[in-house]
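Lab notebook, bench 4. Still working through the backlog of constructs that have no structural model yet. Next entry is a single chain of 272 residues. Request: give me the structure tokens for it.
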Amino acid sequence: AAGAPAARAPPAPAFGAGSAMPGLCGCITQFFKGDKSSECQQFLIVGPPKSGKTTLLYRLRMGQRWSNMSEDLESMRPKSLGDRRKGASRQDLLAGDKDEEEEDQLDRGYHYEEFGFLNSCGFWDIPDSMRHVWSTWFKSLTIHGIFLVVRDYKDTDDNAPEIAENLRRIAEYRRALLCLMNEDELRPAVVTVIINVQQSYKQVDKGDQKEKHDFHYRLGLHELHPSCAWRVKDFVVDVNKIDGEKDSAWKPIQTHLETVLGDDRGFSIDFG
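Model written out:
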């Protein structure tokens, strides 16, 4: 696969990154060493827990061939502190008791895949628990775009707490997205918001435009300054139904990426 520009020396760990970060910085730097083409565009996938980030990555990579992806990904997810305590003996609990903050620091893994569209591109799927070290990527690599994935939960009587927590997370990511767009390294980057809808959803036509999803407003996309708005677009997609990078649901997203990355206000990339 085609590579990406050689990375600058990674910054020192910041924001309480802890001892895990030197390994991460080394991994990124090592990955981009050597004689690699500068044509590979790099993208970050971010979003709240269980929003569909990893599903998006591997549906693009493998399509529907991975038939039980949802179950497999859930089984690989680290168990919460509460789940690990179930059925444990008192002795085990006393010996393995840890700070409650552990529940907010469960998933320390990230995923990377390369694709053939946009000439060549790489996608980094970063868990919510690594939000405090996003800068490790965009200060070490040239990041061409950000994907924010948020999930629209089906409203039922028994999941009201889950919906409330999801809306709280979306409010957090509204602020986080604004911060990312204003980072110097990310000012030319394309921003794509994926609203992951896992139930029947139909956008209503209003003349020459379609009615926007509620999350378009909750994320403040309607209030963006024109200096940012030109490179931001949201899409309503069931990411679990995407069947590879040539899927019809992905084509409008790829067109958005090509349009913004080819703009003179951005990277001015010629995709031929």
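Notes after review: The chain has a mean pLDDT of 79. Residues 59 and 66 are 8 Å apart (CA to CA). Flag for follow-up if needed.
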